[in-house]
Design goal:
By secondary structure, the chain is an all-alpha fold. The chain folds into 2 domains: 147 residues, no CATH class; 137 residues, no CATH class. Helix content is 71%, strand content 2%. A two-stranded antiparallel sheet has the order 1-2. Helix 2 runs antiparallel to helix 6 and helix 6 packs antiparallel against helix 9. It is globular, with a radius of gyration of 21 Å.
Length: 301
Amino acid sequence: MANWISDYLGHGLHLSVASLQLAVVRVALALALLWKFAFEHAQGAWHWFDRGSYVRHEYEAAKGRLLPVLGATGYRLAYVVKAAAVVLLLAGVSPRTAAVVLGAFLLFQLTFENTHTNLFLVACAVVVALGDGPGQCLTWRTVAGATRDGLATTLAHETAARSDAFPAVLGAVVVAGMYVNTAVQKLRSPDFRSGVVIHRWLEHMAAVRPTAFRLVWYPKWVVRRFVTPGAEVGARRLRLPAQAAIAAELLLPAGLLWWPSWPLAVVAGIGMHTAFALLSPVRLVPFSLAVVSTYALFIPG
């Protein structure tokens, strides 16, 4: 089967997929949020809505009276609830409810931190919340079953579980659309195609790295090769990587959709997102982890 999604559409939206595919997205989403929330906590997220804080000021200034002003007590209550929801999501306990809670918190966070990472994590939460498949595999019951019956027997039982394909189709469409959209935006930007955008980002982050602990990381040779020589030389050396990223984002959806090319597309996607995550681990590890997990949704059901 070259493309099961076309079969799903051709059969009147009636098709099932392996629940394990959706469970992979659930686990990756939980791990991505654990990473994200842990670093935010280390950066003082518990105090973000204290009176006089910068985040609260930005929230109130941006939204005015359109949304209720959330005080420190209300925010901290939501903070504890979302932390509990992440644990439940990872364990596979009421994963649909946990995904709804986390999606709501991420939507709230978008009001003062509008990033592509938050937006994509919301999309993953919607995928998990829409189906019963994510809670059938890779849960606390998997650990218990492996202890009791053996790992092979437990995994064999879980890989046989099936669920409705709609959440998987939705997730596949979202990630394919995301790749195409970002590639088109970059194609329309002469500065990105020429390597100038990446050079400026590297130059800026190299300058602020001493005050941005753990926000960025790359070896010194990256700075020596792409930053130290100056804007013209650095941008010229980054032109090929910039154009390669555009080509990868354009080709990945087709490569993932066509089953014979799926393994190669997965390797290329993991390589690209690993490079992104190494450059900015705090910001991009959650995003990269969530995106790569959706590759499982393209596997023929």
